[in-house]
Amino acid sequence: MPVKPDKMKDSIKEENVRERFDFQFWLLCASSFLFFSSFNMMIPELPNYLTQLGGAEYKGFIISLFTLTAGFSRPFSGKLADTIGRIPVMVIGASVCFVIGFVYPMITTVAGFFLLRLFHGFSTGFKPTGTSAYVADVVPFNRRGEAMGILGVFGSVGGGVGYAVSSFIVNNFTLNALFYTSSFVAIFSIIILLGMKETLPDAQRFQWHQLYIHRHEILEPRVKAPSIILLLTTFSYGIVLTIIPDFSVYLGMSNKGLFLASFIAASMLVRVIAGRMSDKYGRVKILRYSILLLMVSMILVGASHNIIFFLVNGAILGASVGMNTPTLFAWTIDLSDPLHRGRAVATMYIALEVGIGLGAVVSGFMFNNVMERIPLTFYTGALLAGIAFLYLEFVYLRKQAAHEQSKN
After folding, report:
1. In angstroms, rounded to a whole number, what is the distance separating the alpha carbons of residues 204 and 41?
2. Which fold, 22-201+216-403?
């Protein structure tokens, strides 16, 4: 049966008048913690793994191919989240992480590695889409920024744990043990999801025709502004994921995950506060500061010349992302139509994947294993952040002001 618009809007309205986050929200946070821990624990060791396979010059594709599939799958996950439900979409994404950990040890060629990375991208193409739509259904509308901040903390802690244990597992056991551990963690994320309640009214059974995507179903025009800003700012994150492992070794760090652990710890500390501030003072006001801080911190990281400076600047960078992400996510939900919330969230994530993917590819080619080029990659990220700030100030806000004047 098709979803009844009035019934869906009434149901979502009832959820939004709640003053507290319910138990389902906290279960979702726990599942997100495990999911992000599962796939993030591989990232610090993948560049070295690819080098062992003979593909050192293709490190920029480690993240970009992953994000390519994730971005391609977003319209499908968004549509399915609006038809068959949020939970099935999340289960599909987490299940990919579970399966993929058993396949990595079987790969012996560079081509096989990148084919697997393409498949692995379906995990983040589905799980976060369903998660964000689910959160929007169950939290009060006036606490969306805070909710996204809390969810981001759980994801950040999960990712930080994954980064931190990555090199430890490889150094004390084997690389294959790391892959199997990733799968073991993913299965617990799935178990939690299976015990949760679906929030989509009149969720339909899956039918193959639901995978047919019309042109107007790919992107949600209502969320154009936050998506453009997200694309420009996540370019920096693609640089971080691609360059930081080699930058860490260059500075003499044996644990390649320490920078990302510092980055995520700082991001975690500011997310909830930033989310609450965006609820109170508005999304745009918080974004002004977060984007400027991102621009400055990318310059500082690129100029790092010792381990202490490197880790401190990583924390500043993490703080900027911790301010930026929950604000943009909440802004996207604010602008979305409840009937097409999955599509709006999917559009946001498409922008995120494109930004990360471009950042990874461009920085990988710019770097090309020449250590002296590392600062330039980070300065490029700062430039894109500056463009995001200019778009917010001189394009979006001016259009909004002109629109308000025309109404008056």
Report:
1. 35
2. Growth Hormone; Chain: A; (1.20.1250)
Alpha carbon 167 to its chain centroid, in Å, reads: 22
CB 339 within 8 A of CB 81: no
Please report, to the nearest 10 degrees, the dihedral formed by the alpha carbons of residues 193, 197, 199, 202 taken in order. Answer: 110
Q: Which of 267, 301, 271 is nearest to 286 (CA)?
A: 271
Stated pTM of the model? 0.79
In the block, which residue shows the tokens 């790969």? 107
Per the model's pLDDT, the better-predicted residue between 401 and 297 turns out to be: 297
Q: How many CB atoms lie within 10 A of CB 299?
A: 17
Confirm if 263 and 310 have CB atoms less than 8 A apart: no
The per-residue pLDDT for 408 is: 65
The SS3 call for residue 49 is helix
Q: Is a pLDDT exceeding 80 seen at residue 60? A: no
pLDDT above 90 as % of the chain = 53
Backbone CA torsion sign across 235, 241, 245, 248: positive
CA pair distance 31, 25, nearest whole angstrom:
10
* pLDDT above 70 (res 341): yes
Q: Which helix (H) or strand (E) holds 302?
A: helix 283-302
Q: What is the full DSSP assignment across 103-172?
A: HGGG--SHHHHHHHHHHHHHHHHHHHHHHHHHHHHHS-GGGHHHHHHHHHHHHHHHHHHHHHHHHHHHHH
Q: How many CA atoms lie within 13 A of 6 on its CB side?
A: 0
Neighbouring C-alpha atoms within 13 Å toward the C-beta of 123: 29
Q: Look at residue 19 in the predicted model and tell me its pLDDT.
A: 63
Q: Residue 372 burial (CB < 10 Å; 0-12/13-18/19+)?
A: exposed
pLDDT at position 276 is: 93
Question: 76-92: string of b/e by CB count within 10 Å (b at 16+)?
Answer: bbbbbbbbbbbbbbbbb
- Distance between CA atoms of residues 271 and 274, nearest Å: 5
Q: Is the pLDDT of residue 12 over 70?
A: no
Q: What is the pLDDT of residues 117-165, one digit of tens each?
A: 888 888 888 999 999 999 988 898 889 999 999 998 898 788 878 877 8
Q: Are 381 and 235 in contact (CB under 8 A)?
A: yes
**What mean pLDDT comes out for the span 224-244?**
94
Place of tokens 């993240």: 63
Across the chain, mean pLDDT equals 88
